[in-house]
Amino acid sequence: MIWWENQFLEAKGGKLYLGGREAARIAAEYGTPLFVYSRKQVLANLRALERVFAGKTDLDVRICYAMKANPNRDILRLLEAEGAWIDAVSPGEVRAAMRAGFPPQKILFTGTSMSPEDFRRAFAVTGLTVSIDAFEQLEIMKIVKDRWFRRKAVRVSVRWNPGIGRGFNPKVITAGERSVDGTPIKFGVEGKKVLATFQKAKDYGFVPVGLHQHLGSGWVKEDLDEVTKAAAAMIQKAAEVERRGFDLEFLDFGGGFGPRYLKSQGLFPVAKYAAFICREIKKRRLKIRALAVEPGKYLLADAGVLLLAVGYLKESYGNLFACVNGGTFNTLPRPAIYLQAYHEIVHCTRLASKIRRRVTVAGNLCETGDVFGKEILMPIPKAGDILAVLNAGAYARTMASHYNLRPIPKEIII
């Protein structure tokens, strides 16, 4: 069995199968570029996450899908039917979640750099929980509430910054003072301001119900120690909040744990993380009724692939390029945006070939960084062959643009 095979991806007879169907035939039927998603794999990932918490806590465990990873309506409806919650980061995402069937009571809205209009649209949704990202936001929130929603009980949580952040790339570290490249972190309320934020929110007529954090994206095995330190810090902070008389309904530990992008990657031990959280909450005797996590890539990444057709091969200064009919920015921007982002790329009809060369898979945009993979050891493709970019279910099409006025690919779900 190849390391990337799962309930969606299968190597059989030297060919790639997606949900039991030949990938190359799917490409011929629907055209390329094409995103293909698997209902079965999404559900398998959801069940796996549910299992790591099973038997470890009596609390309600809320799996809040981070819909910025992939807001495809069929996927949203699938997750809603399975009892998932939603982590939304814009009023547009709140609307999309509700259109897909999620009740406002199962949506946590966590925005940043919020405008008065953002708050007005959020407060208009009865039952929605709005996360406060900055102590300074409260003045804007009060103005909006006093003008349009004076008598409305608006539920809020506080997103705090525990001073510890982890992520696979500096641009996706969302806690701490600065990212590893020196960029100041814009997210969350500083630790020393958390209690004041709860108090002022209450004084202004809001209903504080939760404490929230998010450290970053793309944790691997080696991140466990720092991540558990941050979880312990939030549980301690929650105990302080409770001692000040606030009745917390939930703690939201955010997301960050993801799939395996590389064969050599040490997968983040989600089960150990879940066990630690449940144990520490029980030890602290918190009065909360629920805990939440916000998976995005964990649920969707390995449940999607991007199919691309090779137009021709090009040799230049000793470099061999497979020139494909899609560009990174229009399909899957991650490898062009993040230096550390890697996606396995496989030849859909020659998986077993032992004749391999270093091939750079080049997109069709006027941009040097428009490559899906650099010098990948793979069977030499020819014009018309189909390549599959794996782990394309999350932060792929949702991040795509019309750069160079190229179209964004269509999606199918099987």
Name the descriptors.
eight-stranded mixed β-sheet, 2 domains, 24% strand, 20 strands, 12 helices, alpha/beta, Lyase, Ornithine Decarboxylase, Chain A, domain 1, 414 residues, eight-stranded parallel beta barrel, TIM Barrel
What's the Cα radius of gyration?
22 Å
Q: In terms of structural class, how would the helical and strand content be classed?
A: alpha/beta
Strand content: 15-25%
CATH topology type of the largest domain: TIM Barrel
Give an account of the 3D structure.
The protein has helices spanning 23-30, 39-53, 73-81, 91-99, 116-123, 137-148, 194-203, 224-243, 270-284, 297-300, 328-331, 334-337; strands at 9-12, 15-18, 21-22, 34-37, 60-66, 85-88, 107-110, 129-132, 155-161, 189-190, 207-212, 250-252, 290-293, 304-316, 319-324, 345-347, 356-362, 371-379, 386-389, 410-413. It is α/β, with parallel strands linked by helices. The chain folds into two domains: 9-38 and 301-413, Lyase, Ornithine Decarboxylase, Chain A, domain 1 (Beta Barrel), CATH 2.40.37.10; 111-295, Alanine racemase (TIM Barrel), CATH 3.20.20. Strands 4, 14, 15, 16, 17, 18, 19 and 20 form an eight-stranded mixed β-sheet that branches. α5 crosses α6 and α8 runs parallel beside α9. The radius of gyration is 22 Å and the shape is elongated. The mean pLDDT is 96.
